[in-house]
Amino acid sequence: MFSSRESKRLYRATLARAVLASAVGLTCMSGCQSWFSKSKEEDPAFVKETKRIQEIMADPDRPRLIGEVAGMAGIEIKIYESFGLVAGLPGTGGKVKPSEQRNIMLQEMRTKGVDSPEQILDDPSTALTKVRVYGYPGYTSGKVLDVAIETSTECDATDLTGGKLLEARLREMAFVGGRLRSGTDQASASGELVLLPASYTRKNGDPRNAVIVGGGSLLHNHPLSVLMSTEFKHVLVVKEIEKALNKRFYFQDSYKQKFMAEGKNSAQIAITTVPKYRLDPAHFSNVILATGFNESEEERKERIEGCKRLLADRTSAKRAAAELEALGTKEAIDVLLEGLSSLDPEIRFYSAYSLAYLDRKESIPILVDIAKQEPAFRPLCLTGLTITEVDSARDYLIQLLQEKEPELRFGALIALRERNNGELIVQGERLTKNTKLVIVPSSTPLLAPSLQEHQELILFGSTAPVKLNAKLTPTPFLTLTPERSNEIQISRRAYGETAKVIVEADMTSILRGMGAVDATYNDFIQTIDQLQNLNATSIPVVFNPRPSPGRIYNRDASQGIEPMALDASTRVKPKSAWSWMKWPSSLTPSAFASSKTEAKTEAKTDATAAAPQKERTQESGISMLENSKSSSNSSGSTGGAGGDELPEIDWDALK
Predict the structure, then answer these.
(1) What is the C-alpha end-to-end distance of the chain, expressed in Å?
(2) Same domain? 93 vs 203
(3) Three-class SS of residue 324?
(4) Residues 439 and 367 occupy one common structural domain
(5) SS3 of 474, please?
(6) Among 48, 136, 170, 213, which one is least packed by beta carbons within 10 Å?
(7) Does one domain contain both 85 and 217?
(8) 620-627: which pairs have CB atoms within 8 A and are 24 or more residues apart?
């Protein structure tokens, strides 16, 4: 028990600490103690800097949007690579020439305890390949990835058909000092190879290149963060931004409420992707940068009036909608609702897209209508219908399954799965361990094999006859032979044994028969492609008709995940004598290079995390492909950044 004197002493000490904390505005949230200590309070330079920041934040002409004082880090598309061994080839593999690639692969094999690695590497049933996956912003550990495979230039292999990639660990790789260097393991890849049909790639296929649909997995999170500019690296600013973000964005995780922002130091705020924004990290970044902080209710109302003016102009509608979405108030929603009645499709789209994130039912018919009429907006319209919690969105997606346009039907099916993985209409039937057949009732037939993420064959409508006049060998392992009485014999050779089955000569029976002989997904893809080329079936076939991100609507725009430029145009500029600096008008990650250098020790972040995508790809010696990027800047590009787009692979650029 404390004495009366001790109690008074403790009370005075506690009161003094509280007054000091209040004086410098540091009633920190959890985690602050690790980056603000008593030694800093007594540091004259820190005290001086604190006074400067306090004066700025009290000035009427201060920055009030996060994008005016900070930028986003972690928004680049990362490339993880390795060398891998493909096995199970029917004598089409080859020897590997003496090279650094050979040495790297042999070292990997020895590390894994493989016996006779040199003999295996040069066996005709194996091939040395380059393996690559793309990690998009906001991806989390365990995310399924599609894998690009290319035969090494040092390997004599001629054809990868029938091959299977043994497990490979992928890393960030780059040439440093003339030697190939790599970081820590970031992803894994394995599985059966699929050769992309020419009807999909629009070019002659190269049997030395392939993909593995859904064969990769991310080992670590690919997080986002807010990075302060040099002039605003201070705990006070970080605390205000952290408070503003957590007041606006929070979510339930395992029945617990979780906040999205956590200040790490005076230069960096770690961001947890809100589940609703998982499919469009570019939009998520824009909304974060468009979030206000350290402002009064009157100042927020003032910004809403400015947004109303900007939303009426299609060149600034995207920015205005993001700022209104970040506000999320009734008044902000009312302005977005007015945007739905605009005659300009672009203004209607941005208004509806933000309203979808705000779970407003008025956005649903607008997104559906625009998805049907404007292909450039289609990917994000479907994203909006996916993430909104409005129940009617599901009904509209069900209706889109009956549209004639393959992209709408295929995209709607993907959206239904993303909304609810237990959705019965997407469950389908298991043909093999890895391949599913999904049949969607429809009056308009379509067969749409997936080439991204899921090994599944989507059949809209009922089956149709297959007229095969001669023996067909889609792959060296599989044969379809026409029989009398309108039947087809399917035989597949594997591991020295041949499995056979006779089925009726229609599409669904053939697919199920191939499943009975344990066909690979490549067997399915090549069979469907060749049946289409022979006009052997009346069912139209479209490979992977997923709505493609990166399309441009009306105006030219550069590609890439880039945050919007933000300024004070949504508020009336008050008179002020404070004019010691000019606020930056465009805050892309590259604008914070100097800030990141200064914060490197304290923030412990990768020195390249906020570098422009073009610079990163040049450093790694790899040319990123146009379709692997997503349009998300303020110049009118409307492509999605959902990260599920399998890039069109330019194999020449990969060599």
Answers:
(1) 76
(2) yes
(3) helix
(4) no
(5) strand
(6) 48
(7) yes
(8) 620/79, 620/172, 620/173, 620/174, 621/174, 621/175, 622/79, 622/653, 622/654, 623/650, 623/653, 624/77, 624/79, 625/649, 625/650, 625/653, 626/550, 626/559, 627/548, 627/549, 627/550
Number of structural domains the chain divides into: 4
Q: Return the CATH number at 308.
A: 1.25.10.10
Classify residue 406: in a domain, yes or no: no
CA gap 466, 486 in Å, rounded: 9
Pairing outcome for strands 436-440 and 456-460: parallel
| pLDDT(546) > 50 | yes
Distance, CA of 19 to CA of 37 (rounded, Å): 16
Structure-token pair, residue 321? 């909608």
Same structural domain, 43 and 176:
no
Triad 594, 637, 374: Cα angle to 5°? 165
CA distance 71 to 587: 6
Provide the residue range defining the domain that includes 152.
78-222
Confidence (pLDDT) at 238:
96
In the predicted structure, residue 40 carries a pLDDT above the cut 90: no
pTM for the model: 0.79
Same domain, 110 and 210: yes
Query: Which two structure tokens, joined as six digits, stand for 138?
Result: 């906001």
Across 592-631, b (16+ Cβ under 10 Å) vs e yields beebbeebeeebebeebbbbbbeebbeebebebbebbbbb
> How many CB atoms lie under 10 A from the CB of residue 334?
12
Same domain for 485 and 432: yes
> Are 113 and 191 found together in one domain?
yes
Residue whose C-alpha is closest to residue 174's, from 607, 655, 622: 622
131 shares a domain with 39: no
pLDDT in tens, 206-236: 899 999 999 999 999 999 999 999 999 999 9
> Is the model more confident about 441 or about 178?
441
Residue 629 pLDDT > 90, yes or no? Answer: no
pLDDT average, residue stretch 41-67 = 89
Cβ 67 vs Cβ 230: under 8 Å: no
The set of long-range contacts for 480-488, using a CB threshold of 8 Å and a minimum separation of 24, is 480/510, 480/527, 488/513
Instruction: Examine residue 1 and state whether it is found in any structural domain, yes or no.
Output: no
Distance CA 655, CA 651 (A): 7
Higher per-residue pLDDT: 551 or 387: 387
**Is residue 82 in a domain?**
yes
Biggest CA-to-CA distance, the chain: 106
